Structure formats: structure tokens, C-alpha cells
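Researcher: Next sequence.
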Amino acid sequence: MSNFKHIVRLAALAPTRLEWLWPGRLAVGKLTLLDGDPDQGKSMLTLDWAARLTTARAWPDGAPISQPESVLLLGGEDNLYDTVIPRLLAAGADLDRVHVLQGRPGPDGTLLPPVFPADCDLLRHALEETGARFVVADPIVAYLGPAAGLNGPQVRKALTPLATIVQEAGANLTMVRHLNKNGRRQSAMYRGTGSIAVVAAARIDPLAGRDPNDPTQRVLACSKNNLAGPQPTLGYRIRLDEQERPLVEWTGPVEVSADDIVLNDGTLLGAPVVRAIEFLQETLGGGSRPCKEVRELATAMDIASRTLDRACAKLKVVPFQSWENGRNLWYWRIAHGATPEEEMAQLLQELKGQGEERKSA
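Model: Next structure:
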């Protein structure tokens, strides 16, 4: 009988625990894909994360970082001197722990950016030398060669060894990618440029974009998470510090999904909004109820006020006032598809009826 040395009996292997840099979001030994349109601060997010790791400051959701870690940047779009370094300083990074893999010598002595999988050994050596636990490839298409971004087999050929390298090094590789311009109502997971093999290789795929309910705020939402399930969406703004350097300011949890961001006219609603619509249908199905009472019931069911407002807009919930006990009270009712003229006539009729009831009382 042949002896197949590369067959392993699982009973002979000891299971290990999944390790996280950022619990639920950046896994050690795995590939992360950060998607988003231009001007959403994707590069600044990665620098904010790098700064937190180098100084062991807590993550935006409060999760602690046990010790300072080194990071390795593969930066292809931003200038190191006037962009990357000032932003890292604004974010409070320890620059002694930040390393940049500039590339390999070309025929004329100039540095050429690494291209994978050909330069996998270069990355492996850089991780061994720096001990970096967080690697950023920004943007990832700059390191996959001229055709690999659109070619599924080429993407897998490049990303599979990269996944092996970061697993061996105990590091996380976060790959930055732009969204495509496709307008065919695609969900967030399918909006990234290039082959679907890119998102398939990543274990976690966060998406950065505008908050559809607050144009002054951006959000980081979860498009895919094979390791920990969807994580709460976090809001952030980009502001200038006293030296006019941009930095990320986190604003806390937001009731917005990744699909809400890319389908921001609401064609595809997030689960929280769907739940809020169902709540309103049940609460207002029997007729109008005081607005304050409906909001209190929603709060008791952990439905955020902003989510409730979005559900009201989708369900066409109409507010109206009623004079009761010497004061005006606001009520909500479902319009049921009436025209504006019909709706106004119905409201006037309700108000007239309520006035007659008060007179008879």
C-alpha cells in the first residue's frame, strides 16, 4: 500500500483558538478586504487602526489592545512625506513601529512596487524582519499585476500564498479596494472592482461609505464576515486637528447596513428598518396612535429613533395634530397609499370628528 505522507488524520491535530487584533473585525492570520468609494477615508481608517496598534490604544468600539504592535504598509497612492506621515502623527502613531515595504530594485536601480505572487518572498522577509502584525495593501489592485484584478484564477493565484504568509507570520493583511460604478442594484458584497475572487478570498469585508441618514457622517459597515458574523456599524467623521492634519473621529454605533450604503434609495432595506416597519404595521394597523406613545414602544423594543424615522418614511406614516385637554397632541397614522389630496381630506375629517366628540362630551 502506498504511503501518502501528505494525508493528515485530524485526530492527530490539536485545535487552536482564533486570534484577533480587533475582536470580530481584524483576525490574525487572515485576509480582510476594506471596500468603499473614493473620498470615504479608507486609507485614513487603516492609518487610524495602525496608530492604535502601535500605541496599544483601545479600538473605536472600546475593545482593548493588550500590547503595542508593529505594522507594515504597502502604500501605492499616497505620498509618504506629505500625506502618510502627517496623518499617522495626527492619529497618535508610534512611527518607530511603522514600516513601509517600498518594493524591490528594478533593472535601473529604482524601486519597483511588489507584485504578487512573484514577490511573496519579499513580503515574507519583511514580516520576519519587522515582526509586523498588521499589513495594509492600499490599494490591493496595485500589487496584483496588470490583469489579475479582473481575472479570477490570477487573483486566487496571488491571494492564496498571501493568506499562507500572514497565517505563518501571525499577522492580518487588510486590502483596500474601490467600488465599481455598476448601477444594476448590486448588494454591497458584489460592488467591489475586479473579480469576485477577491472578496471570496477575504474572510471579512467591511465597507466604508456615507451614512444615508446623515450626509455629514461616514460609516463602517459589515458586508461579509465568515469568522464572527456581522459586527455593529460604526460612524465616523474626518476632521482637522490644530495643525490642520486630517484624522478620524469615531461617533459610535449607527443603525445602517452595508447594503443601505450602496443602495441608498432604500430599494434594499437593512434588517433593523424591516423590523421597524413590521413594528409600525402592527402598532398602527388598528388606527392612529399618539406619536410619543409609538416612540416609547419602539424604544422598549430596542428600535433606534433614526431607524423608526426611516421606517415611517418607507411605510408612509403621516403625522397630524389633535387638540385634547387644552393642548395639541401629535398622532401617527399609515397613509395606505392615499394621494396627498385624499390624505388631507381624511385628516380634516378625523379632526372634525374628534371636535364633534369633544362637544358631545
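Model: Confidence is low (pLDDT under 50) at residues 338-343. The first strand starts at residue 20 and ends at 22.
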